[in-house]
Design a protein that fits this description.
By secondary structure, the chain is of the alpha/beta class. Helix content is about 45%, strand content about 15%. The two termini are about 30 Å apart.
Length: about 270
């Protein structure tokens, strides 16, 4: 089976970005993933944040990976303010010029910029979204508020192909989980009392993101994000998953749960 090459794209703005790269790198080293990280692209320069410098140093010096940096914030800042769409197109054209080799696909791993249409078409990109296919759109915070407002019974995390339309790309894989288990029920009861009296707006004003149900939904989602990314990459590396197959999205719920049982990411 041919070794798949992946390009890694990140803004490297927090420790979570480095943790994800380390996990995938280690899974490659132990032979769990039949992949090669061809390069790591960082949309910041090392001098923009200490956490970014640490990411770049770790990736290049400790892991021996090829790292390309090109600051989005420093590129045509006036144009970005005046015409974001045009700026986005030019910035990603410049990225393409800097990428050292062809890859099978790219992974957006904490990459904080919407990619241009041309870039998406030239390079298939995987992106993570904290909801089930067909579920709520928006940031993870917006997704959770929508779940609470709808009194949802379940949610999940999916990986989809990135397109110029945020969160609209075709889903590739997903994991689902219940938010009506015994752990969740008392949190729903507490939250429902506030919703009945003050509605969602009042809940946001009174408790906001400190609401226990909100925090629990976020906790359970985050727990599954790294395993889903790793297992999606594994499915691609084993050719069980491709961008063109008709039987998509692939439900990886049982594989993610088995991954937990083996002691990974716990």
């Amino acid at each position: 089976m041919a070794l798949k090459k992946v390009g890694w794209f990140t803004t490297a703005r927090d420790e979570a970005a480095l943790e994800l790269l380390k996990i995938v790198y280690n899974e490659i080293k132990r032979g769990f993933l039949n992949l090669q990280i061809a390069y790591v692209f960082v949309s910041r320069d090392p001098d923009e944040a200490e956490v970014t410098k640490k990411f770049i140093d770790t990736a290049s010096k400790e892991m021996g990976l090829k790292v390309i940096t090109f600051s989005a914030l420093k590129f045509e800042p006036e144009l970005r303010k005046k015409n974001l769409e045009h700026w986005r197109s030019l910035y990603h054209q410049e990225i393409m010029k800097r990428l050292p080799e062809e890859v099978d696909f790219g992974m957006l791993a904490g990459y904080m910029w919407v990619v241009s249409e041309e870039f998406c078409e030239k390079l298939p990109l995987l992106n993570l979204h904290p909801a089930l296919p067909g579920g709520p759109k928006g940031t993870w915070q917006e997704v959770i508020w929508q779940l609470i407002s709808a009194r949802a019974c379940e949610t999940g995390v999916m990986i989809h192909r990135a397109t110029k339309e945020l969160d609209e790309g075709p889903p590739l894989t997903f994991v689902r989980f219940s938010i009506r288990t015994q752990e969740f029920l008392p949190l729903w009861e507490e939250t429902e009392k506030i919703l009945l009296k003050y509605h969602l707006r009042g809940l946001k004003e009174k408790e906001g993101e400190k609401n226990k149900l909100f925090l629990k939904i976020r906790e359970e989602g985050v727990k599954r994000e790294l395993p889903l990314i790793v297992l999606t990459l594994k499915a691609f590396s084993e050719e069980r998953l491709s961008f063109s197959q008709e039987t998509l999205p692939l439900d990886l719920t049982s594989e993610v749960e088995n991954y937990f049982k083996k002691g990974y990411f716990v």
